[in-house]
User: Fold this.
Amino acid sequence: MEHTRATITWNVQGRPVDGASWRALAQRVDREDYGALLAADHPGSTAAPFVALAAAAAVTERVRLGSYVLNLGVRDVLHTAVDVATLDVVSGGRAIAGIGAGHTPAEWAMLGRERPEARARVEACIDAASALRALLAGATVDAPGLHGARLDAPRPVQEPVPMLVGGNNSRLLAWAAAHAEIVAVSGLGRTRPDGHRHDVLWSAADIAAHFDLVRDELVADDRDVQIDVLVQHVEITDDARGAAARLAETIDGLDVDAVLGAPFVLIGTAAQIAEEVERHRERLGITSYTVRESALDAVAEIRGVLGA
Assistant:
């Protein structure tokens, strides 16, 4: 697939801890022309995404608002559709429905359920995502847990509401490339014993395999979608290799070159990072980056170099 030199989109994944700081973050990303303000979904350990995003909608005008990402494995699809549609209405058509297969065992255990193995989680996620998209489109849906389900009100403003699908499973990425508006490649592998942290898949071979899969699917289906990555670390420094070495020491199996080559890490001077972003666009097709709130000042420097 040939990629134009379109402007890179920058998104922010925020974590609401109090009303004042959350509203201030929403207003900042709106004012500074970020593409989206996104909220995670980990029931029991993070704020409810749609409550937070609705609050953000009230103090913003243009920035998109979405989940990044909903664990559809522990959510009721009909109520999720109502949440997404309501957010779209109160924001004037700015909602993004971000979904994933879920990885945290505690989220199942607290509901008295055992977390399915990866293949079953992915297939259940695809079924739920298909049902969610159909409900938002106004269809009547019969699916696991749904019997003649309809979303008559509220009806979303957007047709369709953009869907973001995040993960690193090959089956899920292929489905996302064929059906979603935003494909978010996570770079995360096996869930570690604490149930929250992950191994990373940042080798050159892993990165090429996952992005090639997405791009091949897009070519086959003649689709042009946003390809996003969730950036785990941003650091402006004159000593990129030294900073990468320190980070590599905390991640099993990675060396300095692997860290510097991964699109999930942005390390170096603002100019060096801008050059790497351009390489990622040409080589991997990445068109958007999602960063954490702590990276905003550094991203402002990078965007200044890019003119984005």
About this structure: The first strand starts at residue 9 and ends at 14.
